[in-house]
Amino acid sequence: MAERKDRLHINGYSVIQNSDYFCYGIDAVLLADFAVKNSRLSERSEDESRKNLPLSVFDLGTGNAVIPVLLCASSSHPIKVTGLEIQEKIADMAERTVKLNSLEKSVRIVRGDICGCDRLFPERTADIVVSNPPYMIYGKGRVSSNIEKMNARQELLCTLKDVVSSARYLLSDDGEFFMIHRAERHEEILSELEAAGFKSVCFRKVKPFSDKKPSMVLYHSRIDENINITELPPLTVYESQGVYTPEVKKIYGKE
């Protein structure tokens, strides 16, 4: 057992992690930042009748709840986050992370299956859905005897299509879906989003260095009848080995 409490880059917030099971990475940080900056989470309502109404947010495959914590810490708008996690040990860490940050009124952890969203939650009740899902098709990634790590990395318990379909089920007609995924699956992802009704897609490729190919892609999708695909300028993580670019430093609050 290698459980520990780690401070987040946002002062006053921490997460419970266990290197035997799950540790969050920069992809979770980038996804949370992307969602906040490109959604109603960054808006401050001037309408007195609406500004205290929380937005309904779902995190599919919440892990140790790092994304719900980051969203609560960064959002300008009140939110209620539901973190869905199927693995009991990981969900327990998530619940304790929520308590550690005194976010019980803003975040709830539900132990359940992404593929069973229609049995767990009412349809079209979410304003925003986020997900940092398993990246690898089962059988194409590295095999490990650690089932928790395998479930986090490979599509053993849910596929890309399952995640996209569940987001579509949960979202209201004007809802927004944010996801981060591997760049090599980009065309497949666009196809799955379109098939589910997410025809308005804005994406941003993430490159480790400016002269390297993208390794990840951030997606912001809306339900629409018309196809509208927009590519944002790429995000570069490092300007040199071990040194973040100014944009990533700003995301981490280091500038």
Write the layout of secondary structure elements.
Blueprint lengths: L2 E5 L6 E5 L7 H12 L17 E6 L5 H9 L4 E7 L2 H13 L6 E5 L5 H4 L5 E6 L15 H7 L6 H11 E12 L3 H11 L3 E8 L8 E7 L5 E4 L3 E2 L1 E3 L2 E2 L1 H6 L4
Parallel strand pairs: 3-4, 3-6, 4-5, 6-7, 8-10, 8-11
Antiparallel strand pairs: 1-2, 7-9, 8-9, 12-13
Helix pairs in contact: 1-2, 6-7
Question: Please, could you describe this protein's structure?
Answer:
The chain has 255 residues and is an alpha/beta fold. It is 29% helix and 28% strand. Strands 3, 4, 5, 6, 7, 8, 9, 10 and 11 form a nine-stranded mixed β-sheet that branches. Strand 3, helix 2 and strand 4 form a beta-alpha-beta unit. Helix 6 packs parallel to helix 7. It is globular, with a radius of gyration of 17 Å.
Keywords:
alpha/beta; 13 strands; single chain; 255 residues; nine-stranded mixed beta sheet; globular
What portion of the residues fall into strands of 2 or more residues?
25-35%
Radius of gyration (CA) equals 17 Å
Amount of helix: 25-40%
| Head-to-tail CA distance between termini | 35 Å
Structural class: alpha/beta
At a glance:
The chain contains eight helices and 13 strands.
